[in-house]
# Entry
Amino acid sequence: MTVCMRDARWSDLSEILRWRNEPGTYANFHNRYPLSLPAMQRWLSDALADPRTTLWMAEREDKLVGVLRVDPDGAVMIIVAPEARGQGVAGSMLAHLPDRPLFAEIRETNTASHAAFATAGFCRAGSRCGMLVYRREKADEERARDLATRVMPARAVKARS
# Structure
């Protein structure tokens, strides 16, 4: 399933909070509990204020279906809307990642994320704090060409260094 990516904005807060507080989502985070509105406001405010942080919303057919965050240290976090799970959204979102060293910490039971990150070129690199660590040094050219032919180009996404 192809998606278009755009920069996140304040008006996305309620959808991100809804997705983050869905039990199937928070069960896969380090902190396995719902977040309060003030905590999510701080999270979004910090991400939007830091030009080194990438925070994109995924859209399909003009509906929001996910959020992708890349922190300055290369940590990747994705949330797929519960109603869009199992449709290839995570893989399409990950195809938009910047070509630089990245990592993700994924709960061992989150098989859908293991598959999506492996398809995006991440390799299992160990474990940390009860999570499996996946790393991608850089996207190889062949995989990048393959993904480019299968994924709609991003729109309204600003390049960040």
The chain has one domain: 4-150. Residues 4-150 form a domain with the Aminopeptidase fold (CATH 3.40.630.30). Confidence is low (pLDDT under 50) at residues 147-161.
